[in-house]
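Following up on my earlier thread - several people asked me to post the actual chain instead of describing it. Fair enough. Here it is, all 383 residues.
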Amino acid sequence: MKFRVDRDVFADAVAWAARSLPVRPSAPVLAGLLIEASDDGLVLSTFDYETSARATLTAEVHDEGTALVSGRLLADICRSLPAKPVEMVIDGARVSLTCGSARFSLQTMPVEDYPTIPDMPDATGTVPSDVFAHAVAQAVTAAGRDDMLPVLTGVRVEIDGSTIALLATDRFRLSQRELEWNPRTPDESVAALVPARVLGDTAKSLTAGGEVTLALSNTGTGEGLIGFEGAGPGGIRRTTTRLLDGEFPKVRSLFPNEKLTTAKVDKAALIESVKRVALVAERNTAVQLHFADGVLTLDAGSGDEAQASESIPATIDGAELTTGFNPQFLLDGLSAIDQDVVELAFTQPSKPVVISGVTADQGDDAGIDTGFRYLLMPRRLLS
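Reply from S.P.:
Thanks for posting it. Predicted structure:
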């Protein structure tokens, strides 16, 4: 194997492929990055039996060949290389990397022990890459992080015709994001539970091109696979990951059909106020919100401890109401909303709030953004 490649293109592709390497691989070869050089160019791959990453890029290939080297070490080396072309050559049981006057020699691992990387499933449809990345970033806000509840660490992807719905919950909050896409067939209807971390990292990394291709297979079981393909610097990038097994909770019914009290508030002002007031909130205690007479008053702290209070204007429709929320969870939801004004909609103080963006500040054109909704459970207030 011998090839020559642009340093920036190579370093970016290595870093992208190496990002999904396991921290504690179950076998030494799973810490490796597979390099395949052929007349078609260069392919860099990683796989840990769950998630695979494959980057294809253009290179001057002089001799075809395959090598398996430590992925994280190669990524560290590539980040430090000077702005010169990179040349790699197999030399016995080692790989020699040269970039300008910098030279490295890396030990190879046995290629024959490396697992077979799964093929990309048949394409299900395409979606604009920037829209997809933004939608996923909003949806994963509410995804769980407790590995003891693996189903809640996923995002449920529901495809119904030309609409994709993304749902995530950690039991204390719920996010729902809907977006339009281009399905392979007009009546496409499938659902899958995708690991939130993989989905978030992948969507964010595939924005170099105009579109991302989604591909689903065997979505009825945990043995199913989802694939994503899009353009990256210097070539095509492809990720596959196994779907999570288990029944995702039926969360759509948690969104109420009525609103008894609503409050429209400037998002930036509310975020800054929550941050300030929360400074005195003890861990796992709520920030109290009181809605009355066109004012939202925020309070935190109690008794002999530090206390804080702040009021901001709000357009309130409905009965006076007092409730409280985990301040970080509240900030997460507010920060995920695009609009400058948000609506907080309640049925009663002890029930969840639904937070949405207001699409216009005032007038007849004002409306609620139904593309993204964030539901948050209240916390018990200290007396």
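The chain has a mean pLDDT of 93. That should answer part of your original question.
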